[in-house]
Amino acid sequence: MLHSTPAPTSPYAVRTAVKEVLETILYIVLVFIIVRSVVQNFKIEGASMEPSLHSGQYVLVNKIVYFHFDLNAPLRLLPGNQDLEPRVIYPFHMPQRGDIIVFEYPLNVEKDFIKRVIAMPGETIEIRDGRVYVNNLLLDEPYLHGASTFCNGGSACSVGPVSVPPDTIFVMGDNRLNSSDSREWEALPLHRVIGQAWVLYFPLSDFGPVPIPKYTAPLP
To answer: Which of 147, 174, 212 is nearest to 49 (CA)?
Structure first.
């Protein structure tokens, strides 16, 4: 019985196969980089955002929604322009009041925190007996779901009035008695913001968009 000898693999076929494998790997890496530049996952740890978000939940963070650039950055490379003030442009929009955002913790940028935007640059914020006033108007906060803001003294109860500096925002956790936020470490620089909490994806029973509040009282 005659047995046929397999034809030897040509060098061209080997090169083609290797090229296809490398192209596939490169494609996967590029897709991963693009996805990571647009979204990021974040695990809720702790009770600071209750009752809105709970420890152990996972959210996708939209990193592109707050994309921005400084028009004056190239000009600061020129001699004599090092002190030129930033001129920041947001093609979409900057963080808005009520947004839940993920950001670099100012006291340790290796950690990411999640809080809610309460006051914008240039606004005056004051907390009286646990209730939030922006520009001397009581802020309607539907996301607290009727939770009591009463407290017995301390930084959680009384702040300000203070003016939110330019290029910063005042952020707070929804669980006002159990949150490290701008009441403790002042306003958050905008360049520390990573993105907006976008979609709850785990546990699956909680799957859905992270709600953005609709304020019923007049906004400041």
So the answer is: 174
Q: How far is CA 214 from CA 3, 141, 217, in A?
A: 79, 9, 9
pLDDT tens digits for range 102-141: 999 988 888 999 999 999 999 999 998 888 999 999 998 8
Half-sphere exposure of 35 (CA within 13 A, CB side): 8
Instruction: Write phi, then psi, for 16 (nearest 5 degrees).
Output: -65, -45
Distance CA 218, CA 220 (A): 7
- Mean pLDDT, the chain, rounded, equals 82
Q: Report the C-alpha gap between 83 and 85 in whole angstroms.
A: 6
Residues 6+ apart with CB under 8 A from 155: 183, 184
Q: How far apart are CA 90 and CA 67, in angstroms?
A: 6
> Which H or E run contains 33?
helix 11-38
Fold exhibited by the domain 13-209? Umud Fragment, subunit A (2.10.109)
Say if CB 40 and CB 184 are below 8 A apart.
no
Measured CA to CA, the distance from residue 112 to residue 86 in angstroms comes to 25
Q: Which amino acid is at 135?
A: N
The 3-state DSSP class for residue 75 equals helix
